[in-house]
Amino acid sequence: MGEYAFDEDSRVEPGADGEYIAELTGRWDGMRGAVNGGYLLATCTRALALTMPFPDPIVISGFFLRPGRPPSGRHWYAAGGPRRSVRRS
């Protein structure tokens, strides 16, 4: 059986300098082009899971100050290491 669409769309790949690269698809966009917050959080969690010494995070919580907007090209970079942040390209 193939992967589920959400698994495929929230996949992250290791990049340079401890970063992780994700390509956000338009499949999970909400109203007025905003990217679904759960999709953003799941994608960041996939990058986090690759850096953790155990298989799954225990608790994840997110708070969004404004709707998520896709960057041009829909590529996001999540930085690994002690400072975990997400930036748009």
Structural overview:
This protein has one domain (5-88). The protein has a 4-stranded antiparallel beta sheet with strand order 1-2-3-4, with helices on one face. It has helices at 5-9, 37-51, and strands at 12-14, 19-23, 75-79, 86-88. It starts with a helix and ends with a strand. The chain is an alpha+beta fold.
Radius of gyration (Å): 13 Å
Strand-pairing-aware structural class: alpha+beta
How many structural domains does the protein architecture include? 1
Please state how the strands of the largest beta sheet are arranged side by side: 1-2-3-4
Please describe the topology of this protein.
Layout lengths: L4 H5 L2 E3 L4 E5 L13 H15 L23 E5 L6 E3 L1
Antiparallel strand pairs: 1-2, 2-3, 3-4
Protein traits:
89 residues, alpha+beta, 4-stranded antiparallel sheet, 4 strands
Compact description:
This protein has helices at 5-9, 37-51; strands spanning 12-14, 19-23, 75-79, 86-88. By secondary structure, it is α+β, with helices and mostly antiparallel strands.
